[in-house]
Amino acid sequence: MTRPVTHLDDMLSILQAAGGGRRLTYEVRCISSILCNLDTQRISPKKRGSNHFGCYIVKEMSQKSVPKVRSEFLCVDGTPTHVLKCGDFPTDQGKNYLYLIIPGNPGVIGYYDKFMRELYRKHGGRIPVWGVSHAGHVIIPDHAKKGNSGISKGTYGFQDQITHKISFIKNHVPRDTHLILIGHSVGCYMVLEILKRCPEVNVLKGIQLLPMIEHFEKTPNGSRMKPLLLYFRWLAVFVAFLMSFLPDVVKHWLVQLYFMGRKVDEGAVEASLNLFDPKVTNSSLFMASQELRQVHEPDLHCIGQHLDKLIFYYGASDGWAPVSFYQRMKNSFPQGDIRLCERGILHAFVLEQSTEMAGMVAEWIEQATAAEGGRPVHTG
């Protein structure tokens, strides 16, 4: 397949000019494949949607009023896990609602920082937003390691990551919470597994954003990644090991160079720094190699059982979920809430389109909570 031209090529040219040579060029290309889930296409200029969402959202918070996202490292399933939290449960609300974001791969929750803040703002601070990283996908600081010494289970596989999310929900989410699960990419597969394995969890909605829930190997990106995942994962880990010795300022510069010319949120830049760690690289690619082997037919039985809770949002040009997947799902469940993007949103929306995606999700949930409780959560 012809590889699209990206700003990575600019970075490679600079490295070659600096004396990096062909070997370094190939190695950097190899490690850059870890970022395959971060779509590097430019966003076509499109007219942005309005911030007004029907009659449900009465008043949004100002940007300055949105609290900073809190960063915590919790012990989940015996492993120190990075969790981000935006906002608290309101004291004057009869029901407690909570967004929980389950990321794609790489499962670095820092990529969703702006999306979380925008989602919280769109609801006027009435629904807190949490996000949980995949085990092993984030560099753990020393202070978090101390309290978890000798407990870690090692590298987590794909099924281990699902168990990890279930453990988080059961042990860290208050039981009386009305949970709104947001899956992104392969995180959508995990949302379906949570619905199937945890009927006792009170899930209001399961939002499937750009879902990668079937035929990993047959997707354009999956077929392109197959050689790396099956045969050259060790090389990517080795390159990450070499690059881990670079000064932090150089790592930061390389990431900025990769995203040069794009209005990428600083949180996404900081999140990308985790990928210079060889353990993180190995965890991400090991999980992806198991996705390749395990994600085949969609679980239509589970989807049918929970169809009233699910909202699917497919991309119009998504290398991880072609439009044919949307059409097949729509044909299988014509009565389901299954949508095809008309706004040019990319698979890696967290890089530049967090505000627009948060606006849509907030609208869907305001309508859902209004239908459930007779009035919207947002009371202004």
Automatic annotation (TrEMBL):
Q: Name one Pfam family in it.
A: LIDHydrolase
Q: Which GO terms describe its molecular function?
A: sterol ester esterase activity
Which UniProt keywords are present, listed alphabetically?
Answer: Endoplasmic reticulum, Hydrolase, Lipid droplet, Membrane, Transmembrane, Transmembrane helix
Q: Which Gene3D superfamilies match?
A: alpha/beta hydrolase (3.40.50.1820)
Q: What's a BP term from Gene Ontology annotated to this protein?
A: cholesterol homeostasis
> Which cell locations does it reside in?
Endoplasmic reticulum; Lipid droplet
One GO CC term on file? lipid droplet
What family, per the record?
Belongs to the AB hydrolase superfamily. LDAH family.
Q: What is this protein called?
A: Lipid droplet-associated hydrolase
